[in-house]
Amino acid sequence: MTTLHFSYLLAFTISMTGFALHRIHLISTLLCLEGIMLSMFIALSMWPLQLQTPSLMLTPMLILSFSACEAGTGLSLLVTSSRTHGSDLLQNMNLLQC
Asked: What is the reported pTM?
């Protein structure tokens, strides 16, 4: 395993453990989700370069656009939840009380 593969795997693993274990604040879960998407984008964009094959780079651009849409949606949810509940704590948000 090269150092490049190890760094992708390490970034993805750290982001996944952060996403699974640190669910106290909404902003921390959104940052971990962005880390997952960024590591996937970098890995998919470097993959054709390592295999030395020509590529149109369609898949990394799709992941990057979905990541931008997810970030916009997540930030709008963060603003809405902080306005309605007063903080971004996930314990305070109960979907059944809407």
From this structure: 0.77
pLDDT tens, N- to C-terminus, the chain (98 residues): 788 888 889 999 999 999 898 878 888 888 888 889 889 888 888 887 777 887 767 778 888 888 889 888 888 888 888 888 777 777 766 654 55
Pick the CATH number of 3-89 from 3.40.50.300, 3.50.50.60, 2.40.50.1020, 1.10.287.3510: 1.10.287.3510
CA distances from 32 to 10, 51, 57, 83 (A): 13, 29, 24, 23
